[in-house]
Amino acid sequence: METKTLRLTLINWRADFLPGQFVQLLLPGVGEAPFCITSSPSDPKHIELTILRRGLVTTASQYIRPGDAVGIRGPLGRPFPLDRFHGRDVLLVATGIGIAALRSLILYILENRKKFKEVTLLYGARFPEDLVYRDEIKSWAEHVKVMVTLSKATEQWSGLRGRVTDHLKEVSLHKDLVAVVCGSPAVMESITNELIKYGLSSENIYVSLERHMKCGIGKCARCLIPGGLLVCKDGPVFSASEISIKAIGE
Ligand SMILES: Cc1cc2nc3c(=O)[nH]c(=O)nc-3n(C[C@H](O)[C@H](O)[C@H](O)COP(=O)(O)OP(=O)(O)OC[C@H]3O[C@@H](n4cnc5c(N)ncnc54)[C@H](O)[C@@H]3O)c2cc1C
Ligand code: FES
User: Residue 33: CB within 6 Å of ligand 2?
Assistant: First the structure.
């Protein structure tokens, strides 16, 4: 997986954002694309984006160098409902680049650790080289429980093996726990179904959806999902009770 984290310094404005929100990154002469803000909301003068190379904008973003100017529209979208997470056990499940959608929330949790009870991060990737924030995760593990599993582990890998769903049974799951799931649509659908089987209520399971976007502000309907909701404005964060679980996987 080819990923790069950009740290953008905001000139003459501050972005007051909350974990779960995104921005539209505008690269002059190339185009615009939405990306989750991955940095901590305690620093509104900078924004970090972790970008997986896919097409035009994401490839061009890999060539941004210190001093280059880029455009940002945002912060956009509905953040994670932090008030609903305070005082509770929290399970964060990420696969692949889905960890980018969780990083700002993780940093917020680390900076406000006393507001949360037990916090577990279950993160799955395929190969060791696919792991994003590999060094940083070690420092997260000093404050929250971290489980990293690889589905295509090499012999040298001494950590967990298999998919994240293979390890859900090792987490203390109970109906008052809040879970946040980020990854590819199919994986989010299957993890959500598993968590419901383990007794979690759909109201306590949150996902961050990715859909093709144009305006990013609820005007063009490009990001419409079943139920008449717009991912850019009503989301990207939804509880699994607000949308059909099938819609998560589409
Ligand atoms: C709210 C939101 C938050 C996002 N956060 C992040 C993030 O933090 N990090 C990140 O790397 N990406 C994120 N994405 C996905 C990112 O926006 C897309 O990868 C990007 O728009 C692709 O633009 P491009 O010009 O490089 O690709 P294009 O040239 O437009 O497309 C290249 C190929 O990639 C496919 N593609 C485009 N978007 C997606 C997608 N979302 N999923 C799967 N395939 C796609 C296209 O169908 C096409 O086949 C997010 C998307 C949304 C809606
Ligand atoms: S991107 Fe235009 S309405 Fe969502």
Answer: no
